[in-house]
Each structure stands twice: as structure tokens, then as C-alpha cells.
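Figure 3 (text version): C-alpha cells given as input.
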């Protein structure tokens, strides 16, 4: 099997958590920020997660009602230990929660991978279970913040 074929197979196995809340995007982002802090996580990109501002600061025009947020979640102590143990893990470490408004509700998306998929992408015995545990915790925090 060629590398390109492997990539296609891996992408077919992706999983996207899909949810929504009646909270406004700003209300949800604030609630999520407070929730993640309770569990030792941080919002890594608070100053750049609001994409209309990020795009606008680079001269791109965006619609007035464009409210996409790309919220990067990190648990610094766990990430530092994990990446020190194996820098190959870094490719799967960024964890983004995407939010936007659609039909007057805040839409929430989070892409994560199965343990088998992680195992096939990074040759590391401990990482798949650890990352899957983090994914489950992020989904639980999203649900709590809704």
C-alpha cells in the first residue's frame, strides 16, 4: 500500500464530534474557558481564536456576521511530558474546538481519532490510550460548558 493510500484510509476513519448550544458563541467560549481551567487545561490561543479578528488583522475582508472561533485546548503539564517522551506525538497534539453560529444556535465541532488510528499514525505504545483519554475529557468539557 502506498503512503497516499494510507492517508486516504486514515482520513476516512476520522471522527467529528458535532453538537450545538443555545448559548451565543461568546457565551459558550467563556463557559468553555472557565470549564477547561477547572480540569488543568488552558485555551492556548485566546488572543487569536476569533477568526474574524485574526483574518482582519492580516487584511482579509470577512462578513460582519462571521463568528468562527478556532479554540485550541491544551493541558500544559501533560503535553510537556508527552512531547518530551516522544516528539513524534506532536503531529496529533493540537486540539481545536471549532464554533460558529448557524440558525441562531452555536455549532460546536471537534475532530478526534480512534486509538487504532492514532496507533497507525504514531508508533508509540502509550500514546493512543493517553490521547483517547484526552479526547474524551475534551468532549466532556464541551458538554459541561454547553
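Below: residues designed for each position.
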Amino acid at each position: 500500500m502506498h503512503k497516499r493510500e494510507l492517508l486516504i484510509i486514515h482520513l476516512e476513519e476520522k471522527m467529528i464530534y458535532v453538537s450545538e448550544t443555545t448559548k451565543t458563541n461568546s457565551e459558550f467560549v467563556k463557559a468553555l474557558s472557565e470549564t477547561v481551567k477547572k480540569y488543568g487545561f488552558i485555551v492556548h490561543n485566546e488572543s487569536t481564536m476569533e477568526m474574524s479578528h485574526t483574518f482582519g488583522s492580516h487584511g482579509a475582508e470577512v462578513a460582519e456576521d462571521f463568528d468562527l472561533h478556532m479554540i485550541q485546548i491544551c493541558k500544559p503539564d501533560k503535553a510537556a511530558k508527552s512531547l518530551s517522551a516522544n516528539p513524534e506525538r506532536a503531529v496529533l497534539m493540537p486540539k481545536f474546538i471549532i464554533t460558529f453560529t448557524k440558525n441562531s444556535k452555536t455549532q460546536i465541532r471537534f475532530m478526534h481519532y480512534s486509538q487504532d488510528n492514532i496507533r497507525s499514525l504514531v508508533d508509540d505504545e502509550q500514546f493512543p490510550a493517553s490521547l483517547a483519554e484526552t479526547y474524551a475529557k475534551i468532549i466532556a468539557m464541551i458538554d459541561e460548558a454547553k
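Residues 80 and 87 are 10 Å apart (CA to CA).
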